[in-house]
Amino acid sequence: MASIDGGAGAVDLGNVLTETSAKSSNLINFPMPLEDSSAALLMDLFGASRTITVDGVITGVVADLRTFVEQIETIQNGSQSGSTFISSWTNANKTVLIQDFTHTKTEGDESKVRYSLTLVQGNPL
N or C terminus: fewer CB in 10 A for the chain? Predict the structure, then answer.
């Protein structure tokens, strides 16, 4: 079960449809003039970063759906201090900040909300 805890208790992320984790190295690439790519100079000076995207569905009565949205938006309050994300895929705990949260309610279906949550891993300042 995936969840995110912003300090006021864990929020269950419901039925996770996809969880994408992208770890990027901020490499400096210096291609050499008149040379193939194998001659390029590469430097790994600026460390790595990870972005996690969770797409899922929350089901329940309208009040439960509204509570879920409010809980996530309360964590993403403009002064985040770090949340613990527990992955449904790896079961690993990661300290993250919420970068983006979108939720979609489909007309005629009062029992579910689709959402997408973009998280950035790191140590909040």
Answer: C
